[in-house]
Write a structure and sequence with these properties.
InterPro entries: Tscrpt_reg_Rrf2, WH-like_DNA-bd_sf, WH_DNA-bd_sf. It comes from Salegentibacter echinorum. GO terms for molecular function: DNA-binding transcription factor activity. This is Transcriptional regulator, BadM/Rrf2 family. By secondary structure, this protein is mainly alpha-helical. It has a single domain, classed as Arc Repressor Mutant, subunit A, CATH 1.10.10. Helix content is 52%, strand content 4%. It contains 7 helices and 2 strands, in the order αααββαααα. The chain has a two-stranded antiparallel ribbon. A hairpin with a 5-residue loop joins β1 and β2. α1 packs across α2. The model has no long low-confidence stretch (mean pLDDT 90).
Length: 144
């Protein structure tokens, strides 16, 4: 459902949030290792997230990535998805067809309308704090 970049963005944001709750700043290499993502690809994703004010990038020998502790609960999964994938998840055809719309629907169009609506509500109502604090200790879920 999400692009690979978006999946990594959610995982990276979750990891950064967990570390930020402990007042830790994390490096690109550490994040890439924890989410099992190539470093260059992770860097592009983190750049998009920083550009969209989801996380902060701090330069220098003690630099890295962080999210202000007081902001973690206000960041919704919808913000992360929008920063990386835009709104395609809410508008694209379920079958990937170019000409699918209400006037020329694909066979799944009407069935997919409700799914999209539910997904949008879930993403808009789920905070990064909920995801981060709802996970078990160990973070093994991040690696795939």
């Amino acid at each position: 459902m999400f692009s690979k970049a978006c999946e990594y963005g959610i995982k990276a944001s979750t990891y950064i949030a967990l570390q930020s709750l402990e007042m830790n700043r994390v490096s690109l290499k550490e994040i890439a290792s924890e989410i099992n993502s190539p470093i260059a690809f992770t860097a592009k994703i983190l750049h998009k997230l920083a550009k969209n004010d989801i996380l902060e990038s701090v330069k220098g020998p003690y630099g890295g990535f962080q999210i202000k502790k007081e902001r973690i609960d206000s960041i919704k999964l919808a913000h992360i998805v929008a920063a990386i994938d835009g709104d395609d998840i809410y508008n694209g055809c379920a079958l990937g067809l170019d000409e699918c719309n209400a006037l020329q629907p694909c066979p799944l169009h009407e069935k997919f309308v409700g799914i999209r609506s539910d997904l949008k509500k879930m993403l808009e109502n789920t905070s990064l704090y909920e995801v981060a604090t709802g996970l078990e200790v160990g973070l093994t879920f991040l690696k795939r």
